[in-house]
Write a structure and sequence with these properties.
The chain is of the alpha/beta class. 39% of the residues lie in helices and 15% in strands. A six-stranded parallel sheet has the order 3-2-1-7-8-9, with helices on both faces. Strands 5-4-6 form a three-stranded antiparallel sheet. The protein is elongated.
Length: 269
């Protein structure tokens, strides 16, 4: 089936859905210029993944220095929402999207206009920094500016002098229980689950579409490459999210003008 026909099919599915959930991954962020971790040219070609475990961060000054070096990468700070982010924000404004469950840590969904309470960040956020000693939280930009101004290799908490860490889930660090539980609940509750820009290789996050499908939801996967869950999906579109999602939104709007759907009836849960 041609891509345009698949796009039309997904638009119709969203129009008819009682509760649609989006699940986003690195493929959405890369379209904003943020390099991903695993693909060719990604972050793990520049850094050793073993240096970024939670245990190494706690016990190795070198590992902390590398983490903060990665934190200062300009691509992240220059990134802005792209057409995929904007399309998802538009779906929420139209009442056609219950929430976004994201693996991404850049908070670009919120910048694009999605309600913060409707974005579930499974892997935390790089937009905040936390003190592991006193629990204080700081906007990341504040720490970014401090590092640049003082030419610091490793910043310390300005309140207690303790160890600072981005509010991002590191390898070996427990997943955030409230966000994980809420994401699982939303996945089980929805009747349409849309994977956007995720290779579905990182667990336990990649369990979310499985939970949705096993609970009876229809599954859509939009990704540039095949995933291990394609066989479970009702629709698979191999294309960039920033090209597909705006066209889906356009067709939904046309459908609403024809009175063909029920966007806006999505229950607020």
């Amino acid at each position: 089936m041609a891509t345009e026909d698949l796009v039309a099919q997904v638009a119709g599915m969203i129009l008819k859905a009682r509760c649609a959930v989006a699940f986003t991954g690195a493929g959405v962020s890369t379209e904003s210029g943020i390099p991903d971790f695993r693909s060719a040219g990604g972050i793990w070609e520049k850094y050793n993944i073993e240096d970024f475990t939670y245990e190494r961060f706690l016990t190795s000054r070198r590992a902390r220095a590398l983490t903060w070096k990665l934190f200062m990468e300009e691509a992240f700070w220059k990134a802005r929402p792209n057409t995929a982010h904007c399309a998802l924000a538009e779906l929420e404004r139209m009442g056609a999207l219950d929430c976004i469950i994201t693996q991404n840590i850049d908070s670009l969904h919120q910048q694009a206009g999605n309600s913060p309470e409707k974005v579930i960040e499974l892997h935390g956020t790089a937009r905040w920094v936390k003190c592991l000693d006193c629990g204080a939280r700081f906007p990341s930009e504040e720490i970014y500016n401090l590092i640049r101004k003082e030419n610091l290799e490793i910043p310390d908490c300005t309140r207690c002098g303790g160890m600072l860490k981005q509010a991002v889930i590191s390898f070996g660090e427990p997943m955030p229980e409230p966000e994980t539980s809420e994401a699982e609940r939303r996945a089980r509750h929805c009747d349409l689950f849309m994977v956007v820009g995720s290779s579905l290789v990182v667990f336990p996050a990649a369990n979310m579409p499985l939970l949705a499908a096993r609970s009876g939801a229809r599954l859509v996967i939009i990704n540039t490459e095949p995933t291990s869950q394609d066989a479970l999906a009702d629709v698979v579109i191999q294309a960039k999210a920033g090209e597909v999602l705006p066209e889906i939104v356009r067709q939904i709007k046309e459908g609403l003008e024809r009175g063909a759907g029920r966007a806006g009836d999505v229950p607020r849960t």
